[in-house]
Amino acid sequence: MNPEQVLFFVFGLIALAGAISVISFRHPIYSALALIITFFAQAGLFVLLGAHFVAAAQVIVYAGAIMVLFLFVIMLLNLGRRDPGSAAGRGKWKGIAVILGILFAAEGIYIAVNALSDNTAVASAQPAAESVTTYDIGTLLFSKYLLPFEVTSLILLAALIGVIVLVKRERPRTISRIRISITRD
Amino acid sequence: MSRTLVIVLLISPLFGFLINGLFGKFLKGNEKLSGGIGALAVLVSFICAIVAFAGVQGGAVLEGESGVLYEWIAGEGFTFNIGFHVDALTTVMLLVITGVGFLIHVYSIGYMHGDAGYTRYFAYLNLFVFAMLVLVLGNNYLMMFVGWEGVGLCSYLLIGFWYEKQSATDAGKKAFIVNRIGDFGFLLGMFTLFAAFGSLDFAAIFGAAEANDFQQVFGGITLVIATLLLFVGAVGKSAQIPLYVWLPDAMEGPTPVSALIHAATMVTAGVYMIARSAVLYELAHTGEVVAWIGVLTAFFAATIAITQNDIKRILAYSTVSQLGYMFVGVGVGAYASGIFHLMTHAFFKGLMFLAAGSVMHAMANELDMRKMGGLKAKMPITHWTFFIGAFAMAGPFLSGFWSKDEILHSAWGSNPAIYVIGLITAFLTAFYMFRLIFVTFYGQSRVESDVAAHLHESPPVMWVPLAILAIPSAIIGLLLGWGGHDSAFHHFTDNVFKAAKEIGSGGHGEASGSMVLFMIISGIVGLVGIGAAWMRYSKRTPSAQPGTALHKLVANKYYIDEIYTAVFVQPIKNVSHYLLWRIVDTGIIDGIVNGVAGAIRIVGGTLRRLQTGVVQAYIVSMVVGIVIFLAYYLFML
Amino acid sequence: MGLEYYLMLSALLFTTGVVGVLVRRNAIIIFMCIELMLNAANLAFVAISRSLGQTEGQVFVFFVMTVAAAEVAIGLAIIVSVFKHRQTINVDEVNSLKG
Description:
The complex is a heterotrimer.
Chain A: H1 3-24, H2 28-48, H3 52-76, H4 84-87, H5 94-115, H6 120-123, H7 134-142, H8 146-167, H9 171-184
Helix pairs in contact in A: 1-2, 2-3
Chain B: H1 2-22, H2 24-27, H3 31-55, E1 68-75, E2 78-83, H4 88-111, H5 118-137, H6 141-159, H7 166-197, H8 202-210, E3 217-220, H9 222-237, H10 246-249, H11 255-264, H12 269-276, H13 278-284, H14 287-307, H15 311-331, H16 335-362, H17 375-378, H18 380-394, H19 399-414, H20 416-441, H21 449-453, H22 460-481, H23 488-504, H24 515-537, H25 549-555, H26 560-608, H27 615-636
Antiparallel strand pairs in B: 1-2
Chain C: H1 3-23, H2 27-52, H3 56-86
Helix pairs in contact in C: 1-2, 2-3
């Protein structure tokens, strides 16, 4: 076993363990923290694959920005104390979900082992090229994928506006909403 | 020049229709203008018709084969054109339609005074004249059919003109439906002709038929089938046995309409059509059928007319009867005589209808002649014109005598049996017409007192047309019919029927024996009929209750309407009600519709439960689907 | 390390995400599971990109991250909004679309 293989198994196991923790913890905060661990482990895997830029983006965007957002919302809604039992995995679908998961995983592994091995071009396991530099990605992004790149900026803008619209407080409406919730109760 | 003339002739009533029909609202309250426009439109046509008449003297043909105005329908292997054919036969029809039509328009100005539908009436009437002109002007069967349907529509509209009256709308529907049976035959006849000749143009068809150059779609009897089918159309339109039943009921319409459409013009369309198709009928030898249907109708209708008491109905049955004579004429090959009778009949029958309308006008729309009597003193002009009309139809020397006599003379040459029935009918005709005259105008007045108070002669706008119509009714037979088969009228139309005459010369046509003898016989028969009527009715009123069983049978019109109701109407109603409505409609069709809806409701009600609203349930089904698809993709393919 | 190991790991992570979506009722955790699945896909992208010696795979990862960021922002806003109305984010309690 060379060091790369060791590192793959280490990061892989951490990522899997983190992922299972995410769906196992009762408390959303714990789930979120487990998810961060998974993200970090994945970043390590990206480094192993020579994708340094993606690894950096993974840490900054996912482990940083997105997870902060998650934690912020969890705390904003104060879900930690509230009815911890209901957050637990006691869904009606637990049994069927496990069966489906096993089938799904089996199929995925089957694809990984067999389906792709037929293809000789892909089958060469060992990395064929040197690690991809940020320069390469940047060149590609701003030449061949310039239009999609610009479109993603639009998506972000739309998301920005959407979020503002969704959570904006409207004074007169708030009152009526409260009244409705009272009558409902 | 001539083309412009024909177009003006044709379009003028259409304009009248459009003005009265579209802008009638603005003409309301101005009856003079509205009626004036209607009458003027027909007057223009009449003047054009006179010019056209002058143009076809000596057998000339205006707008013959080359008279194509424009291509109407062009398809793969067929072309239908709008085109005109104006020959002597056409101009006779044109003169009758526009001439009598104009006088009836003028008369209507007075007759329809104060009616709520005044402009509508003139719009319909103009449209009718237009459609009738299309019918006679066309140079192909398709145009004739367009006009044929057009006059049918106007007839329906005008019979049901007083649509608030149940009986009027019923009569309109009856006329329309009965006519449809005939029109169906006409259509099939047209299809047959088209299949055989590949064209509907008169010139092309007659030429090919004479040369025996056509597709024998039904073997050797192609022409027989085609002509008989066309004759079915004529039977419907011209009210012959067995489709005559609509015409008496059509008297529900305004009286001038009865005069114009149901006496003078539209009902003669069948006669015109057969005369136009003379070549085909000669080649197919189906004239015999036409003649027999005609003479039987003539006799049958005359017997019914004797027992009726409603003056318009008597006139209606007499129209049916006279139309029968015309069919005898064209059936035995005396086309000119048939058309001649058509013309004289248009005058004297139009006259009598208008006179009857005048009587109604004075009598507050009373139609039962048992409640009249002695009107001669109060309404001298109406009486005399009516008398001239009746005498023209029944008695010697006036117009109808000449034309009818020619027909009878030709019938003798063809088949003496037809002649004998025709002669008996002539006697019946004289009898019932003068029964009408004596009961209505002579004897004791039986008019109810409140009506009698304002019994009056009609205004000039009504009696002047009567007087004008009385002149041709009286003298035109003598003028044009003198000389029998050698008369002026025959010479005039000679060219039109030349081809048919040549084909038919072997079989029938010219009668043997002296024409004079026949004239004397029918003159005597007519006078005897009049005398019998005078003996029986000049003093007495017809009894209210039919006496003998035979009388009862005839008075009830041989129960033909009842028979038709029992044989055709009731079974169709029953089938519609029990089979089509109860079983097919509510059972099968509604069952299918409701069944589909019910099935969807059941399925939907079941599937509804799947929509739990719980997102995870949806995701589970989605993942199940993905797993199955992946499995299929990986292991099955 | 062989490509198939990376793909196997990717499949396992993805499956974990799927199972999480199925068993958890807390909307936020379901959301996290979705992120998990996206990340598993990213891993496969990068691994195959490496194997083929192409840069495109990493560009796609970049796009996926962008979209994921937008999606998280919107999704969390919706969750906040739902919570304000319903005082809960349990997905089996939010079933107004029941047929």
